[in-house]
Amino acid sequence: MASVVPLDNATFIRPSTFYINGFYNMPYAKYYYIFFCFVYAVTVLGNSFIMGTIYLARTLHTAKYIAVFNLALSDLCGSSALIPKYIDMFLFENQYISYENCLANMFFVFLFMTLQSLTLLALAFDRVIAICFPLRYHAVVTKTTMTLIIGFMWLFSVSIIALLAALITRLSFCRSTTVDSYFCDHGPIFRLACNDNSLNYIMAAVCTAVVLYIPLTLIAISYVCIGVALCKISHGADRMKALKTCTSHIILVAMFYLPIIGICMAAITTYLHPNTRIILIIFTQTIPAMLIPIMYTLKTEEVWHYIKVLYKQIKLNSEMEE
């Protein structure tokens, strides 16, 4: 049942539950949900491994790997906020969610998405200083500096997303409580309101700019600066070596931002089927999180070197025990 609160001449209706609609008549949808069980298992194991590696390896206690650790943590928590509930809802058909749990789900999903985006920006800052100002890198990008940046990112993200979720509580839902998404998505929920939702619309636009457009623009500017700096390097081998340090970051940036930007552009210019939108967005939120450990082990020499050292130590210890 919905709780009804009289407010002067109006009636404020707060529903007890929302119904998460999910896919529209999608065939073989259960195989899709099972696939995300696998994605989540790989994400947990992989990100736990990369976080454990960074924590144990003293050589990786640098500013760059503070940001990488935060990215892995954000991806792990973001997937944990989304996938288990997603599987429970649609694989086991528990699509009703209480009002309070819905707001909590919205807060954590958007919080860790914001942190993922801002951490990619922090890593772009690390790369632009390393390549454009190599002699000043260790003076500018210190562990203290990166820790302060990460701390500010957490404080800012918690504040803005808490405000985003809190503004939902001022809305009255007197009609449908069916959410046309795969989680407690902010846009589909505030559009269900009967009373004025203009403040929620403005907040959604602000958050979209903060989470997507501003970080992506700053990352693009940083790579323009990196490109100019690389053109000034005379030796091709040195240029390729410097560019190689950016490849993992470029791939993750492309995988995180491009599908979401593409969906926004498609929604403006043409009709996008709800199932297509759901598939593209959930892939954007989950697949990069799964691939981060691969990017930072196979593509990063420091991590790969420590894994080899750790493997040799374990092998030597087992031989000594025998």
Total of DSSP H or I helical runs spanning 4+ residues? 11
- Physical arrangement of strands within the biggest beta sheet: 4-3-5
What class, by secondary structure content? mainly alpha
Biggest beta sheet attributes: 3 strands, mixed
Q: What would you call the shape? A: globular
Topology record:
Layout (H helix, E strand, L loop, with lengths): L2 E5 L2 E5 L2 E4 L8 H28 L6 H28 L5 E3 H34 L4 H4 L2 H24 L11 E2 L6 H5 L7 H34 L4 H9 L2 H23 L4 H25 L2 H21 L1
Parallel strand pairs: 3-5
Antiparallel strand pairs: 1-2, 3-4
Helix pairs in contact: 1-2, 1-10, 2-3, 2-5, 2-10, 3-5, 3-7, 3-9, 9-10
3D structure, described in words:
- With about 325 residues, the protein is mainly α.
- The protein contains eleven helices and five strands.
- The strands form two sheets. A three-stranded mixed beta sheet has the order 4-3-5. It has a two-stranded antiparallel sheet with strand order 1-2.
- Strand 1 (about 5) and strand 2 (about 10-15) form a beta hairpin.
- Helix 2 runs parallel beside helix 5, helix 3 runs parallel beside helix 7 (about 200-230) and helix 9 packs antiparallel against helix 10.
